[in-house]
């Protein structure tokens, strides 16, 4: 068996979900909303199954979705993309990340990763033959520094894998951070694979700023988006990849030998959804922001130390003021003793560099959040 995968431990998400089921806990661990997603988009998918094409779609994606993607990101982010040469559809963002790493990384190449990070990154980098080089981000702001980047980048740096907004920290990187990272990429002739799946789930008037738009980055960026996150349909697994033609030609070959295509009915529905009026996207953000504020207020009133959440479905709590220094043990006690499932953020670090932060998903109905707060109050009282 391949040791990269056979040696992996059981995912923390699987562990916490199992414990949540065993103890009938309120599950704020896994990041998915209670809401079923926009009905009109779901209906488009259903209609496309019954009345549309259900055989192989084009390997690069339906032309209507590729065009809709280019139009959508021109409107929202000012990107000027050629839908025929610079847009590709994949079976989810994780496939897009895996394919990009396989396409761009050769054995011995170094890949810069920012931790905490999505747990798929490290095994995928290693499977592609890459050598992970970590930039460790610390609470409460999780920002970049020139010193940390200088330690991670080297003449062997080939790829940077960058998640913005950042899961699990709910951070949006500043313009200064983006300019600093772009400068390092240009200086070291590195390609940035940008995992931007949370780009529409941002709050407090923020607008997502893609790294692709920074000076020198247009030809060296692979931008990855997710319909599952944009439309709160996490099970759909429809990814959109954007890159300059020279990069896209190789990305497409990797995709061809991984999944080849993505269900055409879902592609048709996503194409429709990307063309929705601005009010849909603004309303979606407002709804999630209201849930964030409701849950943050409840946690604060209970005496928990809540970290800033500028985007994503997540809110983080610093448990150090509670006298706690082991987030894994605290989460296990919380789910088994008080019936609330959360995720220890140390699981998102390669070596558990931070062990005092816990992540909750607030993308839930009010009743779910209120039930969790009642149990968290009991946990606070001991």
Automatic annotation (TrEMBL):
Annotated Aminotransferase class I/classII large domain residues: 26-376
Gene Ontology MF, one: transaminase activity
InterPro entries in the record: Aminotransferase_I/II_large (IPR004839), Kynurenine-oxoglutarate_AT (IPR051326), PyrdxlP-dep_Trfase (IPR015424), PyrdxlP-dep_Trfase_major (IPR015421), PyrdxlP-dep_Trfase_small (IPR015422)
Cofactor(s) needed for function: pyridoxal 5'-phosphate
Keywords: Aminotransferase, Pyridoxal phosphate, Transferase
PANTHER family assigned: FI04487P (PTHR43807:SF20)
Name recorded for this polypeptide: Aminotransferase
Organism: Bosea rubneri
